[in-house]
Every structure is written in C-alpha cells, then in structure tokens.
Amino acid sequence: MKKNTKNWKLKVIDNIVWVLLLIGVIVFIILKPNYFNPIANPSLYLNIPMQASVMGVMTIGLAGTILLGDIDLSCVGIMAVSAATGILIFKNGIVPIPIAMIIILIMGALLGFVNGVLIAKLKAVALIETLAMNTLLAGVVLAITRGRTITINEKGYTILGQGKIGGFLPFLVIIFLLVYIIMYFVWNRTALGRSLFAVGGNARCAKVSGINVDRIRIAAFTISGLMAGLAGLMLSSKMGSINSVFGSSYSMDIIAAAVIGGTSLAGGVGKVSGVLGGVLLLNFIQVGLQVFGMDSYYVEAATGLIILLAVLIDSFRVRLSNKE
C-alpha cells in the first residue's frame, strides 16, 4: 500500500507542471472569463507560445546541462554575443543575411563548446565557470554596442521573428515546436540522450560502463550554446535590434522553467514534455498577472516565488525517490 502511494505521489510530482498549468488556466478563466476563455479569446492561447518561443529554446538547451547535475549560467551572454556578432558582420557588408544567421548559430555552439571543454577537461566548476563566462560576454556586448541600440530592419532578417504562415502561425512558434520535437528524439531515442541521464545519475558508474563522460559534458554544453545562439537569432529578428541588456530578462526564467518542469538539479531526471510545460506555465502566469494590472516589479517577485516552489518540489522529489 505504501509503495502504491509513493508511486502515485511520484507520478503527480513528475507531472506537477501540467497540473499547475491546468489549475492556473481554470482560476484565470473564473476570475476574468471574457479574456481567458479560450472560446471567447483564442488569440491569447496562440500568443502564449509566441511569447514563450525564445525562452523555450534557451530552456531546453539549459535543461541538458542540468540533467548532468551541472548548470549553464552563460546562456544569456552567449545569445547576446552571438546575435551581436552576426548582425555587425552583416551590417558591415562582410556577409549576406543567410550567412550571418549561420554565423550566429556557429558562434553560440562554439562558446558552448568552450564552456564544455573548460568544465570537462580542466575540471572547472560549472556554476562558477559559466557565471564568469556570462559576465565576460556581458562586457563584450556592452563594448560592442557602447550602450546604444543596433537596429536591423532588413526584411530578410526580421521575417524570421515577425513573419507568419497563413497570417496566423508565427515562424517563431514553428521553430520552438521543431526544437522540442528534435530534443525529445535526442533525449529518448539516441545514445547521447541515454548517456546524459546515465552521467547525471552517477558519473562514476557511467564511466565504468564505457561512457565517455567528458565527451558527453562537452556535447551538452555545446548544445546549450547552440540553443542560446538560436534564441539570440530569434529574439533579434523579432525585435529588429540588439542592445546592451539584450535578453537579460531570461536569466532566471529559464532556470525556473527547467526545474519546475521536472528537470532535477541533482541530475539524471528530466523530461522534454516537462520542460515544455514549465516554459508555458511561467509565460502564462506572467501574462495573466500583467492582464490583471499587476506592476512589473510584483510580476518579477512572483517569478521568484515560482523558482522557490520549483526548488522545493525538486527537493521533495529527490527525498521521495530516496525513500527518506
């Protein structure tokens, strides 16, 4: 009986993000039916994935490093430097727009690769190394922009972030969904995905079983950098500009979304569907609070509470799994 109760609790906790999302939708519909009713206002529920797209792409990359029991705090810095590099190379007439977009992705992956090498080969602590890298990259962006906004109005670039298929389905949402489909396949159907869970669960046992732990770490941080670069491309295309604080609002949100989505900070536990739920939940709550007229400062405080809730849920999950 106790075992069945424990299994039931674990199932609920593992899918808590979708339970919370459903509760949130119901509560908001009751409080403001004219706005949150999906039948009366379907555009709201089409707009949520649009707003979540950039953060969602970054979050799934970050989640891969959390699976290892590490963390990547340089995502925002990588996205900003990657986007700034591509835009400046294009604006200076060095390469055309398509090549500039590819350079943004390559730059993100390269910076992620550097993180991975420093952490895997030089045994740097991921928390400190990526925090230092983020600070360094923030300084680079500030030097590049000199505190000014760099605009890019060419349709060939902005269409990615502002264009829609059929007039209603944004390209950003399509990219967002494709990334999650691909990452679901990677996590659940490839040797890399299985190795991520194995290394996160017990790195020493994974090494003994023949897994190249260093290579897996480098791969995870490279993917995180690639996703950050893609997010930078998406956001700069959507905004049509980049500035010295580009993407800084995502720094804590992506951690909150990954953890509340079930990716354990202890490593070895996580689901792509959970990360998706965490991203949608966080964006839905933030939009809902703004609709109710809550000041942006309080919305930030609410995000902090969600992060705290996520950490507590993760702690409870670990304790329950360990039969404490």
Describe this structure in words.
This protein is globular. Strand 2 and strand 3 form a beta hairpin. Helix content is 76%, strand content 2%. The protein contains 15 helices and four strands. The mean pLDDT is 88. It is mainly α. Strands 1-4 form a two-stranded antiparallel ribbon. The chain has a domain at 43-247. Helix 1 (2-14) packs antiparallel against helix 15 and helix 6 (97-120) packs antiparallel against helix 12 (213-239). The chain crosses the membrane at residues 12-31, 51-81, 93-118, 124-144, 165-187, 216-235, 255-285, 297-316.
What Rg is obtained from the alpha carbons, in whole angstroms? Answer: 20 Å
- SSE class: mainly alpha
Q: Regarding quaternary structure, how should these chains be classified?
A: single chain
- In percent, how much strand structure appears in the residues? under 5%
Q: Given the structure, what is the number of helices?
A: 15
Q: Work out the helicity level.
A: over 70%
Order of the strands making up the biggest sheet: 1-4
Largest sheet composition: 2 strands, antiparallel
Task: Calculate the terminal CA-CA distance, rounded to whole Å.
Answer: 17 Å
The helix/strand series, from N terminus to C terminus, equals HHHHHHHEHEEHHHHEHHH
How much is the average pLDDT?
88
The total of beta strands comes to: 4
Low-confidence stretches: none
Function: Part of the binding-protein-dependent transport system for D-xylose. Probably responsible for the translocation of the substrate across the membrane.
Keywords: Cell inner membrane, Cell membrane, Membrane, Sugar transport, Transmembrane, Transmembrane helix, Transport
Pfam families: BPD_transp_2
Organism: Clostridium scindens (strain JCM 10418 / VPI 12708)
